[in-house]
């Protein structure tokens, strides 16, 4: 960096010597193709150290050099002074209050904003190099606007705008400091040399744009035309700049503000944004037309330019007129205008978490509503098949009788059975096999009662004389002990085994003994023999 006296042209070196990179004092410091400088309010100098991909600051008093921001590796990354990356920063200017350095980056086709206090770097405007690495042209919001090799920047005295020489777009651009909104100030984009109103004038690779000290015009270095051009500011001030489409406010009130989501503005000037009307209530921030108003999440197009709410059982996460999506089976949404798949709840007859997997209610349970509730057990004695959606689906289980539903089912009594679920009565076991336990579920549970044994194809037969059986089943009857005899068929207790005719039970031994000579007994039983 060289200093030239305006008094006599005497030239001295402030800082730097050979090409390279070194933060040091005076000629011990190194730069690599420094391309532009700007003064801070304290007199120090900000340097665009182009091929070092850094911003440097040089103390005017002694030439001490420090790095303000940049890693030295070409790139496009915002962050603090040690992480931010630049790509060939070509021009710098300082805001009127001295708090920020504005950088024109030809390699990134963007404008960067660097805080002087700590080197924190952000993007003021510019979407970057684009898919082909050559930048582009687009007016609009900061993240949408595109430049092609911006070569010079100058901040208005108010600090509200940055004037940009957009070299390879052959235009002068205007960028709002508040939000980076970018418009074309002059030039049609067709390369040429034509003096005319700003929107008709032609420029040829403008390389410089500086606001003149009186603030009434911009001096343009029109390199391709080999000329200096003057862009006059109407009414001697930038106050004639009007809020663009999609923005309201004015410079007098502090700048232009993008229309809020759900509103638009289709005229330039200080007017207010209009709310989207009818049923199409959504629009992006900064919308410029009623045509930008569309369906918000949870609504679909109705075919006539309006919107209607997604019906129960469907949802929509995106904006626009596209059709609502059905909840995946077996889900259903519990309300209209659902905006996310998590609104899809398990349908009646299914259980599970919101937006998660739904499983059918297990047999013996039901669920009557859409929601995350668990399936409910049928009343005792009743059952249902999988996936039932109402208590009426619960019917009396096998072994139970009744109507089911909300009515309690009754267990089948002993001697009856029921082998199918549903309403209805229990069936009596066949006469030949008249026993079953309470709650029997099949005719197979019907068996021989006490005092009966299996007779094969004849069913159950009474225990014969001289036998007994005190348990259910098809097992044979048991013989009476000793010489005892039963008085009738079908005995169900060993106590029915008594002495036969001609015998009496001994009071001493307890067994049946033959009547002594001279006595007799002509009946079955334990009676004494008669003389």
**Number of helical segments with 4 or more residues:** 0
Q: Which residue ranges are poorly predicted, with pLDDT under 50 across at least 5 consecutive positions?
A: none
Helix content: under 10%
Cα distance spanning the termini: 158 Å
- Determine the mean pLDDT: 88
Principal-axes shape call: rod-shaped
Number of strands: 45
| Range of strand content | 25-35%
Q: Radius of gyration, rounded? A: 51 Å
Strand order of the largest sheet: 3-4-5-6
Largest sheet: 4 strands, antiparallel
Class by helix and strand content?
Answer: mainly beta
What does it look like?
By secondary structure, the chain is mostly beta strands. Helices cover 0% and strands 30% of the residues. The strands form 19 sheets. It has a four-stranded antiparallel sheet with strand order 3-4-5-6, with no helix packed on it. Strands 7-8-9-10 form a four-stranded antiparallel sheet, with no helix packed on it. A four-stranded antiparallel sheet has the order 11-12-13-14, with no helix packed on it.
């Amino acid at each position: 960096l060289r200093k030239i006296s305006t008094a006599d042209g005497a030239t001295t070196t402030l800082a730097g010597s050979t090409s390279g990179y070194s933060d040091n004092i005076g000629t011990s410091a190194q730069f690599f193709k420094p391309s532009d400088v700007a003064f801070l309010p304290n007199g120090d100098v900000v340097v665009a150290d182009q091929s070092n991909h850094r911003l440097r600051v040089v103390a005017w008093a002694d030439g001490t050099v420090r790095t303000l921001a940049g890693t030295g590796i070409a790139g496009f990354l915002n962050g603090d002074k040690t992480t931010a990356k630049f790509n060939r920063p070509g021009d710098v200017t300082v805001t009127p209050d001295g708090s920020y350095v504005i950088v024109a980056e030809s390699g990134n086709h963007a404008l960067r904003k660097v805080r002087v206090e700590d080197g924190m770097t952000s993007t003021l405007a510019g979407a970057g190099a684009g898919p082909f690495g050559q930048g582009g042209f687009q007016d609009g919001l900061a993240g949408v606007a595109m430049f092609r090799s911006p070569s010079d920047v100058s901040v208005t005295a108010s600090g509200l705008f940055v004037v940009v020489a957009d070299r390879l777009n052959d235009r002068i651009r205007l960028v709002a400091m508040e939000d980076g909104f970018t418009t074309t100030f002059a030039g049609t984009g067709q390369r040429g040399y034509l003096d005319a109103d700003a929107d008709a004038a032609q420029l040829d690779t403008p390389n410089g744009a500086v606001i003149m000290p009186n603030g009434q015009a911009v001096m343009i270095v029109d390199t391709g035309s080999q000329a200096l051009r003057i862009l006059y500011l109407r009414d001697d001030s930038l106050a004639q700049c009007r809020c663009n489409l999609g923005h309201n406010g004015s410079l007098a009130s502090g700048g232009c503000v993008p229309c809020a989501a759900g509103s638009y503005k289709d005229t330039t000037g200080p007017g207010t944004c209009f709310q989207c009307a009818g049923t199409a209530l959504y629009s992006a921030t900064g919308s410029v037309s009623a045509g930008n108003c569309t369906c918000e999440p949870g609504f679909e197009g109705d075919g006539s330019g309006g919107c209607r709410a997604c019906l129960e059982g469907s949802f929509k996460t995106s904006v626009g007129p596209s059709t609502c999506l059905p909840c995946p089976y077996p889900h259903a949404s519990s309300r209209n205008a659902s905006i996310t798949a998590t609104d899809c709840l398990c349908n009646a007859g299914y259980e599970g978490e919101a937006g998660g997997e739904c499983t059918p209610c297990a047999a013996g349970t039901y669920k009557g509503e859409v929601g995350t509730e668990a399936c409910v057990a049928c009343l005792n004695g009743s059952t249902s098949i999988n996936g039932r959606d109402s208590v009426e689906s619960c019917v009396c289980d096998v072994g139970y009788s009744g109507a089911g539903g909300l009515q309690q089912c009754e267990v089948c009594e002993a001697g009856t059975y029921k082998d199918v679920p549903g309403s209805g009565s229990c069936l009596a076991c066949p006469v030949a096999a008249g026993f079953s336990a309470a709650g029997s579920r099949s005719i197979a549970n019907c068996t021989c009662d006490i005092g009966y044994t299996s007779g094969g194809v004849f069913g159950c037969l009474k225990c014969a004389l001289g036998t007994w059986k005190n348990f259910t089943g098809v097992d044979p009857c048991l013989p009476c002990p000793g010489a005892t005899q039963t008085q009738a068929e079908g005995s169900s207790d060993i106590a029915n085994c008594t002495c036969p005719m001609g015998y009496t039970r001994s009071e001493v031994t307890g067994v049946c003994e033959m009547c002594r000579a001279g006595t007799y007994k002509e009946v079955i039983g334990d009676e004494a023999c008669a003389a």
